[in-house]
Amino acid sequence: MWLAKSIIVNIISKIKRKKKAYNKEYRKNNREKVLQQQRDHYHRNSKNIIAQTNENAARNRAFRSDLLAQFPCYCCNDPNPTVIQWHHVVPKDKCFSIKMLIAKPHDIWWDEVLKCIPVCANCHLKIHKNKLCLLLNKPTESQLKKDIENTCAVAISCHR
User: Fold this and answer.
1) What confidence tens digit (pLDDT) does each residue in 118-127 have?
2) What percent of the chain has pLDDT over 90?
3) I need a labelling partner for 134 at 20 to 30 A (CA). Which of 28, 74, 89, 110 fits?
């Protein structure tokens, strides 16, 4: 019984591969005809296609908003989702804005979210005005002076 089932599965997979190769060749040789068929299909079903697209976009938007609403501000822990903004930690890595773009596939969108931290509007403004530092261990003034002196000493010794 098992052997017969595996033989049937093998035959079906061969048929699928042949059909896929045939369809690819057909589309290649009849490109204009296929494009016209696609256009005709869209014109016949445009209302349904647009409705389905809008429904999917609304569902994605709600899912992503609900997901992002779970995160409080990284700096002050404000849990209000209406004031949370997503700050790119490394601005040069920014590909697109998190809340503005819904059309991207979920995995690409999520990769972009992972480049960000959630901050409230007040903290976000402070970050961009250099009034708030995102470093976990904020250096003391004496540590900063020491680091500056060491950097200057290295720079001087390298340029001699």
Assistant:
1) 999 999 999 9
2) 42
3) 110
Query: Do 115 and 94 contact (CB within 8 A), yes or no?
Result: yes
Cα 108 to chain centroid, rounded: 3
26-to-13, 21, 34, 112, 122 alpha-carbon distances in Å: 20, 9, 9, 38, 59
Claim to verify: residue 37 and residue 93 sit in the same structural domain: no
Interatomic CA distance for residues 134 and 123, integer angstroms: 10
- Which long-range contacts link 63-69 to residues 24+ away (Cβ below 8 Å)? 64/102, 64/109, 68/98, 68/99, 68/113, 68/118
* Residue with the two structure tokens 């061969």: 14
Report d(CA 94, CA 88) in Å as an integer: 6
Under 8 Å between Cβ of 127 and 134: yes
Could you give the CA distance from residue 45 to residue 41 in angstroms, rounded to a whole number?
Answer: 6
Residue 34 sits in the same domain as residue 53: yes
- Give ∠ CA 121-122-125 in degrees, rounded to 5: 85
Answer yes or no: are the C-beta atoms of 82 and 68 closer than 8 Å: no
Domain containing 156 equals: 72-160
Backbone angles phi and psi of 123, in degrees to 5: -65, -35
